[in-house]
Amino acid sequence: MKILSIVGARPQFIKAAPVSRAIRRTHEEVLVHTGQHYDDNMSSVFFRELSIPQPDINLGVGSGPHGAQTGNMMVGLEKVAMDVMPDWVLVYGDTNSTLAGALVAAKLHLRLAHVEAGLRSFDRRMPEEVNRVVADHVSDLLLCPTQVAVENLAREGIDHGVHLVGDVMYDAFIFNVHAASQESRMVEKLGLEPGRFALVTVHRAANVDDGERLHAIIAGLEQSALDVVLPLHPRTRSRLHQALPKRIRVIEPVGYLDMLALEEAAAVIATDSGGVQKEAYFLGKPCITLRDSTEWTETVDAGWNVLVGADSQRIAEAMRNFRPKSARPNLFGDAHAAEKIAALLI
Question: Under a CB-based contact definition with an 8 Å cutoff, are residues 138 and 128 in contact?
């Protein structure tokens, strides 16, 4: 059995780590990196830390407008797929790499498996929502992380090939959280006191490409009067045209283990990242989502995540006062999603 696995962005590297381990016990895997994320802090460090096999092929596409980036990926992936002729093409999540891989598989009549199928924010203004909807509707095997994802697909008339396997990011978290606490020195290096700072990430185009939204988010962080640690995504750095308040401490993007350590030490997490929302939930940290919608509606319904958009007053209020006390139900499976995925590919 030959699997062509396609990754390209930081969250996909995390998801691919447990799945690649499981696949390679019984199958042959050809791992392709589209190059969507390409510098060391956003790419190579994850392969090193998570012990992901080095990509067999790196397309080196890089950044660019959605159409050009996705088109360039499709050109490269089509050639790879025709050379490899895999039994399955495996894509993850909702990035342009996901969309490109899904379309190439569909046009070449190759069987397609989608990890994280069924997620919906119900906001078609988000390019990620379009990517995940298209990928789901051309997939043969839909690997859902939660029961809500299964129900979302059923409402769209998709019930064949749908499997509830759990969340592969939870697999990765369980596998690595102890190593993060033992090996990461990021909290000490930054001189941080656990429980006395907020950890913030901002990178989505809807926030950083809109100057008013980005300014409002920064204002909300300042008004919270909390000390903030902000690992700054390259996209965000290129859009910032203002001096940041002294309370906001900017650092370079960090690897997976260092990020887990910072999340564990933070009093509260504010983010527009889907993956960080889940990691906050895994760690029992209050999460303030800097978006108007989320694909992880379960965490909101459970009372551990609150949507504040880019409203500076709501951001500041939530950062100061949103501290859930309710129980955290097990939403994301048993940390064996990767093994279930490998078995379903047979």
Answer: no
Residues 30 and 135 in one domain: yes
184 with 262, same domain: the answer is: yes
Query: How many domains are contained in the chain?
Result: 2
61/192 Cα distance (integer angstroms): 37
For residue 283, being part of any structural domain is answered with: yes
| pLDDT tens-place string over residues 236-263 | 787 787 778 889 999 999 999 999 999 9
Task: Report residue 113 CA to chain centroid gap.
Answer: 18
Domain end residue (candidates: 164, 199, 222): 164
* Residue 171 is assigned to a structural domain of this protein: no
Closest CA to 139 of 157, 158, 124, 155: 158
**For 182-232, what is each residue's pLDDT tens digit?**
999 999 999 999 999 999 999 988 888 888 999 999 999 999 999 999 998
Residue 309 in contact with residue 291, Cβ under 8 Å?
yes
- For 219, the domain range is 176-321
pLDDT-derived band at 63 (thresholds 50, 70, 90) equals: confident
pLDDT digits (tens, 9 = 90+) for 189-199: 999 999 999 99
Both 158 and 183 in one domain: the answer is no
Q: 337 in a domain, yes or no?
A: no
Measured over the CA atoms of residue 325, residue 330, residue 332 and residue 338, the dihedral's sign is: positive
Residue with tokens 């203004």: 125
CATH of the domain at 53: 3.40.50.2000
Q: At what angle do helices 10-26 and 274-283 cross, to 10 degrees?
A: 70
203 is a catalytic site residue: yes
Query: Would you say 112 and 138 are in contact if contact means Cβ atoms under 8 Å apart?
Result: yes
Q: From the candidates 33, 37, 114, 203, give the one annotated as an active-site residue.
A: 203
Sign of CA dihedral 172, 250, 215, 97: negative
**CA distance linking residue 114 with residue 98, whole number of Å:** 8
The reply to whether 196 and 289 lie within a common domain is yes
Average pLDDT, the chain: 94
Domain-embedded: residue 342: no
Tell me what pLDDT residue 53 has: 85
Residues 113 and 210 in one domain: no
Tokens found for residue 177: 């959280």
